[in-house]
Design goal:
Elements: H1 3-21, E1 25-33, H2 39-49, E2 53-64, E3 69-74, H3 77-88, E4 95-98, H4 104-116, E5 121-124, H5 141-149, E6 155-156, H6 160-166, H7 175-186, E7 193-195, E8 205-211, E9 216-222, H8 232-245, H9 250-267, H10 290-293, E10 307-310, H11 313-319, H12 323-333, E11 337-340, H13 347-364, E12 368-371, H14 374-380, E13 384-387, H15 394-401, E14 406-411, H16 414-422, E15 427-431, H17 446-456, E16 461-464, H18 472-479, E17 490-493, H19 498-510
Parallel strand pairs: 1-2, 1-4, 4-5, 5-6, 10-11, 10-17, 11-12, 12-13, 13-14, 14-15, 15-16
Antiparallel strand pairs: 2-3, 7-8, 8-9
Length: 511
């Protein structure tokens, strides 16, 4: 390995160590909900579910339940200022998320403190009108939003009623109206706008409109039939803030947050708390699998792709290996992620073998993905799937697997890479880079094709196909400056020496 490449790897390793020791931190400035479905309580739970630290500044204390809001007690502005200064001066906040700002003076205090203690991002949830229709602030604060807070915001997340209020109560009745509203609100100063369409009349899906000042994105999710929708707005905004604190791009943070809320709503649709028309939902759906998933601290870490092993049934048969033996050799040799590619086995046999492989991988803390077979991944609770262009669409796979699972997509063109990102994939498998005898009639793209996709991709890229010890260094040198993520990524096909390949490549990376 060239000295310059080794220095890049050492620098990346040092930066990762620092990054992993820095806990992402969100500060929520909002009201307290005694029913614990929305407000500060929802923000705390949402950030915790995204594994992000959350501190709080309470602007008001409310008496509310599943029936409605019975009372609001606004905090003195000087005490709100004291809370803000206490946290911002000491705790290295990454992102501030705002909720209920019940008075113009409290809004001004917040803006003053943000100017004194700048943060990486400001997420504004303009809590004016709840989903249930309760008006939570007076009209006098609207000018404060428009003139002071919105120009400081990195994203604002109004529902239809709130977007209408910001625009002097213009009616919003269609997705086209939402697009117009997003553009007009953007002109008030925020860098990004997300107009939420959950309350859009006569809509079978939940369509949110995201506008970044240049492009519109219509983000669609299934409408969940449930009464348990209290706190969805707070949760979405806090989830966006949490993902931004972890370093995600804005659109990626919005997409992850939207998937999380959709999944949590579906998981909690039959939850029965309270007697009113709008109940809370369960933010901690992932805890149902905590025993199985406790070895994984993060949903997805691009560094898991560093040494990517792909098993092959024909090669295993040739060398007399079971799929479990191939997987154990790979992880013992240093593989950081494993994909099970099994085209010949019966479904029952594949599921049973996958369960054995999953136990092996989890004992090493290595993620296990299933190639193509969503049904097998669900049956064995694998960490995710890898799909091709002719397999199940990524968006449908995401809806079946939920937000916590890893999804990779095979891509040969920049257009396919862009679509994978839009549809919610976590990484791209790019290849074959070289010809390989483990996948017949697979069109190769060469190093130039790999470089082109790396340049275009917004996702981490795994170079797949015909990569071994003799050419790994060439692939690294060609793609290292461009791969999205923190390290060059490999895939190598299952062979008799699969574990040895992993070990040799792992040693090569350290040279």
């Amino acid at each position: 390995m060239h000295v310059s490449m080794a220095m890049q790897m050492d620098e990346a390793s040092t930066n990762l160590h620092i990054f992993h020791n820095k806990v992402p931190h969100v500060l929520t400035v909002a009201g307290s909900d005694s029913g614990s479905g929305a407000g500060i309580q929802a923000d705390l739970k949402a950030c915790a579910a995204h594994r992000v630290y959350c501190s709080t500044v309470i602007t008001a204390v409310t008496a509310q339940n599943t029936v409605g809001v019975q009372g609001v007690n606004i905090m003195p502005e000087d005490f709100v200022a004291e809370q803000l200064r206490s946290v911002l001066s000491d705790m290295h906040v990454d992102v501030v998320k705002t909720g209920m700002l019940p008075s113009l003076n409290i809004l001004k205090v917040l803006c003053q403190n943000l100017r004194e203690f700048p943060v990486k991002a400001l997420v504004v949830d303009p809590v004016m009108v709840s989903t249930s229709g309760h008006v939570l602030v007076g009209p006098s604060i609207l000018d404060g939003f428009r003139e002071e807070l919105l120009p400081m915001a990195d994203i604002i997340t109004p529902n239809i009623k709130e977007a209408s209020a910001l625009l002097n109560y213009v009616p919003l009745k269609s997705v086209s109206d939402m697009r117009t509203a997003a553009k007009l609100i953007h002109e008030l100063g925020p860098r990004n706008v997300l107009v939420k369409g959950g309350d859009l009349p006569d809509s079978l899906d939940c369509i949110d409109v995201f506008f970044d000042g240049e492009e519109f994105y219509e983000l669609c999710s299934l409408r969940v039939n449930t009464r348990n929708t209290h706190g969805t707005g707070c949760t979405l905004a806090s989830s966006i803030a949490a993902e931004l604190a972890k370093g995600s791009s804005m659109l990626s943070a919005v997409k992850v947050a939207k998937r999380y809320v959709e999944t949590a709503l579906d998981y909690s649709k039959d939850l029965l708390i309270g007697n009113g028309a709008q109940g809370p939902f369960d933010h901690f759906l992932a805890l149902k699998n905590i025993a199985q998933n406790s070895y994984r601290q993060d949903r997805f870490n691009p560094n898991d792709l560093l040494l990517y092993a792909v098993t092959d049934s024909s090669m295993n048969r040739k060398w007399g290996h079971s799929i479990a033996e191939a997987v154990r050799a790979a992880v013992e040799g240093g593989a950081t992620i494993v994909q099970l590619r099994e085209k010949d086995a019966e479904t029952r046999d594949f599921v049973n073998a996958a369960k054995v492989c999953l136990e092996i991988c989890r004992s090493f803390g290595v993620p296990l993905l299933i190639n193509d077979r969503i049904d097998v991944a669900l049956a064995c609770d694998a960490d995710g799937v890898h799909v091709g262009q002719s397999d199940m669409p990524t968006r449908l796979a995401r809806s079946l697997l939920g937000p916590e699972k890893i999804i990779g997509v095979s891509c040969k063109t920049p257009e396919q890479a862009e679509q994978a990102w839009i549809d919610g994939a976590d990484y791209i498998g790019c290849g074959g880079v070289y010809p390989t005898n483990t996948k017949a009639n697979n069109r190769t793209i060469g190093l130039d094709g790999l470089r082109e996709i790396c340049q275009a991709s917004k996702l981490p890229v795994v170079a797949i196909g015909g990569i071994g010890l003799s050419n790994a260094g060439v692939v690294m040198e060609k793609a290292l400056p461009l791969v999205v993520g923190h390290a060059i990524n490999f895939a190598f096909k299952g062979r008799s020496s699969l574990g040895s390949y992993a070990l040799v490549l792992h040693q090569l990376m350290k040279q």
